[in-house]
Amino acid sequence: MLFGAVEAGGTKTMLAVGTSPHDLRAMLRVPTTSPDEVARAMIAFFEAQPPVAAFGVASFGPVRLD
Q: pTM score, two decimals?
């Protein structure tokens, strides 16, 4: 079973697909620029991978400010 990972940071966003932290099948480092550019890179990366069962997301700060 494959899992997707997104770590959104202030200077870079890391994307990965694997079965565990010790078995990463693909990784991509994307510079954190505009939200649209990062989203397009994320979509392209995950569309090029086999289907994943679930995603884990880590963010450097609040995801939604209300």
A: 0.85
For the chain, the 3-state helix, strand and coil shares in percent, each to the nearest 5, are: 20, 45, 35
Strands 54-59 and 3-8: parallel
pLDDT tens-digit profile of 31-60?
989 989 999 999 999 999 999 999 999 987
Whole-angstrom distance, CA of residue 29 vs CA of residue 45: 10
- Name the residue among 23, 27, 25, 3 with its Cα closest to residue 13: 27
Count CB neighbours of 41 within 10 A.
17
d(CA 56, CA 4): 6
